[in-house]
Transposase-like Mu C-terminal domain-containing protein (Pseudoalteromonas caenipelagi), 698 residues
Amino acid sequence: MQQVSSKNWINSADLAQLMSVGERRARTILSAGEISKQIIKTKEVTGVRGHGGKGLLVDVNSLPPELREKYYLSQVGSTSTELSPLVADAIEHGDVATHNTESRMRTALWRFELIRQALDFDRHSAERGAEVQRVAGKTYIMPNGKSKKVTLDMLYRWISAYENGSGNVRDLMPKVREDTGRKKNFIRDVDGLVKQGVLSQRAHKKIEEVIERYVKSLWANNAKGWRTITEYATGRLHDLLIEAGVTQEQIKATKSGCAVTRAYVERFRCEYKLVAIHDSDAKLFFDRYIPRITRHTDGLRPMDLIVGDVHPIDIKCRRPDGSVVYPRAIAWHDVGTGRMWFTLIMLEKGEGVRREHVAMSFASMSQEWGLPVRLYLDNGNEYKWAEMMQGFLEIAELSSKMSVTLMDAERELGRILRSRPYNAPAKAIEGLFSVIEQYFGDITGYVGGNRQDQKKQNVGKEPVAFPGTMDDFHAQCDIALERYHKRAQSALGDRSPNQKYADFVSKGWGKVAVTQETLLFAFAETYEPKADRGVIPINGHHYYHDDLLPYSGRKVTARWARHDPSKVLVYADGRNLTCIAPYEPEYGVLESKGAREQARRAQTLKRIITARRKHCDRLDLVEEMADWNKRIPDAPEAPTIQTVTVAPSSQLGQALEAMKQQDQQVKKPKKRVYDQFLTDPNNVLLDDIEWDDDDLPN
C-alpha cells in the first residue's frame, strides 16, 4: 500500500463527512477534481478496497476556505487525529482551555490564507517573491478582531514554518508559553538563593513544603491575621534556611530579608480559615457557615438567512408615569420567506437596548422558527451587536450549519465573517421596515418617520399618544404583523410570506430545533455573588449546591440568564466549572424533609472540613508566640547618666532637712495587742452584774 507522506490528505469518506454528503457523491467530486468550480489537488493511492484497489485522496489545503476551516477546527482536541499530541502537550503543561487551542487554530488558518497563494510557487522563485510583496505591508483583521500589519519577515517566517514542518496548518499556530500552568513562585528571595547556588534545590523544595504546611496550620489554628502569620512564618523560614547552611548575613543581604509575604500567606486563607472558625468559634460557625434551609407556609401545587436589526417604532406611547416613549423593535427577517419576527420593548428614560432584550428576542424567535443557518446582524446606531457576538458564537459552535456575519463591522470576532460594505440581501430589512410601517400607520399615535415633521391630528398641538395599555398596543401590533404575513407580495411571486413558508414545509423542509438550555447559557450574564452556606443570591433569586458550602463568605463567578433564571453555572475559582446550582428548595414549616436536608448539609460540610484538616497540624499558638519572642531581643536597661540633688544651703534644702528631723521625732504609736480575754476595767456594761466565785462553774 502506498504511504501518504503528508497528513493533509483525506479520503472520500472523510470528505463526505466534511461536506455532509454521501460517500458516492464524495468519490464523484474527487474524480471531477473540483468543488464549486474550484480546482482541488488529488492523488491516486493503491491498496484500498474496491475500484481495482485504487482510490483518490484530496489535499485539505486545496479545499474551499469554509471546508478547510471546518476540517482543521474539527481536529482541535480530537484524540484520533494528528493534533492529539498538541492537546496532550497542553494537558501536560496545564488546562487546555488556558492555551485557547481553538483560538490558536483560527490564527493559524488566518496566516495560511495569507501565504496560501505564495506556497503554490517554487521556493526562491520570482513569482513567490512578487506574491509575498503583494501581501506584505498591509494591515489585516485577525480572528480576534484586532488589526495587525503583516511584514515580509512575518510572511517568510510563516512560509518557512509550514514548509520545514509537517506541511500542516498546525505548524502556523502561535507557540505556547512553556511556563503556562506551572506553580507560582515560593518566596523570591529564597528562589534567588537557589539561583546564586547558596541553597540547593532539594533543600528549597523541603523548606517550601514545611512553610506551606506551617502557614496552612496557622490559618487553621486561628492565628490573628496575615501580619501575625507572616511574622511567625518568616521566623520559621529563617530557622530552616540556617539549618540548610545559609548564614544570617546572606539572609539579610536579600532584598526583603527572606520575609514571607502577605500574598503568599493570603493564598491559603480562604481554604483553611474555615477550619479555624469551626474549631474555635462555634457561634460564628453556626451563625454564618452552618447551612440553612428555607421554609414557607404555602402548599405545593402545579427557526436559511436571518437578518437582525433594531428599529424604532414611530408610534407615540406613554409610560405608566405619563412620560412619552417610542417603542423599539428587535426584528428578525427571514429573507427566504419574507417573514418578520418582532419583539417590542418599552425603554425607560435614558435606557438603551440591552443584552438581555436581544437575548430574549433571539431565544423566542429560535424556539418558534428554529436555529438560523446564517445570521446577519446590522451593526447600526440603535444597537452594537458586537456585545452579543460571544453568545451567538457559542450557539454557532454547536451547529456546523450556522454562521454569523456582522455587517459594516471593522472587526472580526471568532467565526464572524466580514460582509461587504453593501450587502443587498442583508439590507433588505431596511426596506421591509417601511413596508410594515404602512400597517402600523393605522394604529393611533403613529407620527411617521420624521420626528421634526410629525403627523398630527390637530395643527399646533402635540400628536395624540396611543390611548391603551401596553397589552393593547402589543395586540394591535400583532394584528398589523398578521396582516403583513398574510398579504401577497410581488417580490415573493405574488404570494404571502405565510404561503411561501408553507411551500417549503410541503416539500419536506424542517427546522433545526434548539433547546432552551442551549439558549439559556449561550446568552448568560456573568455575576460575582458572595456565597453564604452553599447559597448564592443573584437578582433576587437564591441558588444552592453542596459544592458551594466551603466557599461561604467568598465571591464566586456565576453565569446567569435573565430570560430563564432556573439554574446558574458557578465557577468558584473563576475558570473551572464548580457546579450547576438550581433554585434553593423551600420546605414547609412542618415538613420533616426540611430537618433531614439541613442535617445532610451540615454533615457534608463536616466531611469537607475533615478532609482539609488532614493537611494541617494542631499548634499551641502561645508556644508559637513565645518561640517568636525568643528571636527578638528584649528592651535594654537604660544607664543613669545624671542624678539631680538639692544644695543643703538652699531654702529648699533647709526645708527638706527640717522635715526629715521632724519625722524622726514623731513617736510611732504603740501597736495595740488584741486579746479576747482582756477586758477594760472601766467598762460600764459590767457595773450592774453581781456575781461571786460560787457562780463560776466547777
